[in-house]
Automatic annotation (TrEMBL):
PANTHER family: DUF4371 DOMAIN-CONTAINING PROTEIN (PTHR45749:SF21), PTHR45749
Protein's organism: Acropora cervicornis (Staghorn coral)
Positions in coiled-coil regions: none
Superkingdom of the source species: Eukaryota
Residues covered by the DUF4371 domain: 49-119
Protein name: 52 kDa repressor of the inhibitor of the protein kinase
Length: 208
């Protein structure tokens, strides 16, 4: 894979339906299922290495603002600001575009992305001064929503417990799961708990 070549492109993602994948796996023998799990989901697998998504916002020929997902790129050289800067520029160049035409860049607030000295945004702007950095408002909204939930508030957590007892008296669990973030497959446990308690969670959030 050459630099700038995405691991998954938009067209790759669209042709894979999760239901079809599960249907295919279900036809495997028990031994093959174990091999699949070991190869894909084991700790240290290449499939849980960091990836960066690339989305390009542009004005098309009809002067309509568009945002297009390009692909997921494997961070083979690490996740430092310099490595991500090289990854982004390489991807843009491989698309046949010029960074000289870039008028903005948008990331979350992590130091390696938006750091004033060594963040990817600062390093890119040092070479292309018209590429102004803007904090990703969708990410900021996501953080705000997460902070309004239950982890940081005993009062809200108690409200959730009360709702579970009222609406789901047969429930065996009363808290949501905050699982290990680096190991993405373990987040399934957290999703299972949300599905299990969804009725009470929605009712609690509506009250809040």
């Amino acid at each position: 894979m050459v630099r700038g070549d995405p691991v998954w492109r938009k067209e790759d993602c669209s042709q894979y339906d999760i239901g079809l994948i599960f249907k295919e796996i279900s036809s495997y023998s028990d031994q093959d299922k174990l091999k699949f799990i070991e190869n894909v989901w084991k700790p240290g697998s290449r499939h849980i290495k960091q990836r960066k998504s690339l989305v390009i916002r542009f004005l098309d020929s009809t002067k309509t603002v568009r945002e297009e997902f390009v692909g997921f790129y494997l961070c083979e050289d690490g996740t430092t600001g310099a490595a991500i800067k090289d990854l982004i520029i390489g991807a843009v160049v491989d698309l046949g575009l010029s960074m000289d035409d870039c008028r903005g860049q948008c990331y979350d607030g992590a130091g390696n992305m938006s750091g004033r000295l060594n963040g990817a945004s600062s390093l890119i702007r040092a070479e292309h001064d018209k590429a102004i950095y803007v904090h990703c408002m969708n990410h900021r909204l996501n953080l705000c929503i997460a902070d309004t939930c239950f982890d940081n508030s005993p009062k809200r957590q108690q409200h959730l417990i009360n709702k579970i007892r009222l609406l789901m008296p047969a429930a065996n669990h009363f808290v949501l799961v905050n699982v290990c973030r680096p190991r993405w497959i373990e987040r399934i446990d957290g999703m299972d708990r949300i599905v299990e308690l969804l009725h009470a969670v929605v009712a609690t959030l509506e009250d809040i």
